[in-house]
Design brief:
With 378 residues, this protein is mainly alpha-helical. It has helices at 2-8, 12-32, 35-60, 68-91, 97-102, 117-140, 147-165, 190-215, 218-228, 230-235, 240-266, 276-289, 296-314, 319-333, 341-345, 357-364; strands at residues 176-177, 181-182, 185-186, 268-269. The protein has 16 helices and 4 strands.
Length: 378
């Protein structure tokens, strides 16, 4: 009965999909999973939030973002710093415990603003996006793209991990851990940990809903047109750099939120969680799931993270090779990812290398007048 209704009213399909996902996450998962598995799923949902942003920037915008660990790390470390200072205040200490052990008796000045919960939350939302805006402006305005952009973003992730490793005031190589409470809620309480799962699940659904709106908006069509025919879009009077910057900032914004949720859920954040390897792992999940689809990046990130947890226990030295082989097979033979298998079975394979209908719509239909109203030939 539901099938004919959805076919008669296609606009109800997304609502049905979100309703099904909400039932699975909020109703089924807490019942069938124990506390450990539920916390593990919450961790995977954080990865899915990052993946949805990568899907927008890479799948729709053509920007191979190999450095999302930078923005993930900014959000994660801001949250960790706030939780550490909140724990120290409850214990009546001037500095967090790890600083006392390291012999640091005075709180560094850059820690002080994040002792306030509102300031920490604003920092989590603003700093990753601001960093991406500054970086994107410097890169895309100079028309850096392709492999050069990928290498640059990866180098930034490596540089941040190296920088954090040498800073004892933020935990050094071991990072920050042993958080006791999350905004007043004890993290040792299973009910509060379930609350964190619901928070991660709700955030992931909200992020997917927002990206869906962007994909079906005029901006989404323009983003695809920039990916496929950048020079033609520039000829029409639009600046492709501005279009890319917006997508890059949105992806960074999502990554910062995911990092902030990851910290209390996992209970630790270290340079190993934000360097080159995690950034590539994010990308692999997106590629395997299907970078040009809406749900493919999220499902791919969750699937890869689950497989890593399951198989690395049995094959600790072989999982990395298996992950690499899977990535090569998917990119080489199923460019649309696992989400593209069904269209292939139906005889309608999709590919990002073909001229996308949305891009054709942007470049052939009447476009609204750009802000400048002037086209310059270079």
């Amino acid at each position: 009965m539901l099938g004919p209704l959805l076919r008669a009213h296609p606009s109800l399909t997304p609502l049905a999909g979100f309703a099904g996902a909400a039932i699975l996450l909020f109703g089924v998962a807490p019942v069938v999973l124990d506390d450990f598995r539920l916390n593990l799923l919450a961790k995977f949902l954080c990865f899915a939030i990052v993946a949805v942003g990568i899907g927008l920037a890479w799948g729709r915008g053509g920007m191979l973002t190999l450095g999302q660990g930078v923005f993930f790390g900014i959000g994660a470390y801001i949250m960790a710093m706030h939780l550490q200072m909140a724990d120290a205040a409850r214990l009546g200490n001037e500095v967090p415990e790890f600083m006392e052990i390291a012999g640091i008796r005075e709180l560094p000045s850059f820690w002080r603003p994040f002792s306030s919960a509102p300031v920490a939350l604003v920092g989590i939302l603003v700093l990753p996006a601001l960093t991406a805006a500054i970086l994107g402006y410097g890169v895309f305005k100079r028309r850096v793209k392709g492999a050069y952009f990928a290498i640059l973003s990866q180098a930034l992730a490596a540089a941040l991990a190296i920088l954090l490793t040498g800073q004892q005031t933020i935990g050094g190589f071991t990072g920050l851990s042993d958080f006791r409470a999350f905004f007043g809620f004890k993290l040792s309480d299973p009910t509060n940990r379930q609350m964190l799962f619901f928070l991660a699940a709700g955030t992931m659904l909200a992020v997917v809903a927002l990206v869906r709106q962007l994909m079906h908006s005029r901006y989404g069509e323009l983003l695809i047109a920039v990916r496929d025919q950048e020079e033609r879009v520039r000829f029409l009077g639009y600046d492709p750099a501005n279009v890319k910057i917006v997508a890059y900032v949105i992806a960074a914004f999502f990554a910062g939120i995911a990092g902030a949720l990851f910290t209390p859920i996992v209970g630790i954040i270290s340079p190993a969680d934000i360097g080159v390897v995690p950034s590539i792992a994010f990308l692999i999940g997106v590629a395997i799931g299907g970078r040009t689809t809406l749900l493919g990046p999220a499902l791919g990130a969750i699937g890869v993270a689950w497989a890593q947890t399951a198989f690395s226990e049995e094959f600790p030295s072989g999982w990395t090779y298996l992950q690499g082989v899977l990535f090569i097979v998917v990119v080489g033979f199923v460019p649309a990812g696992l989400a593209g298998l069904w269209p292939m079975v139906k005889g309608m394979p999709g590919s990002r290398f073909r001229w996308h209908p949305a891009a054709r719509a942007v470049t052939t239909e009447a476009l609204p007048e750009p802000v400048t109203g002037k086209v310059e030939f270079r």
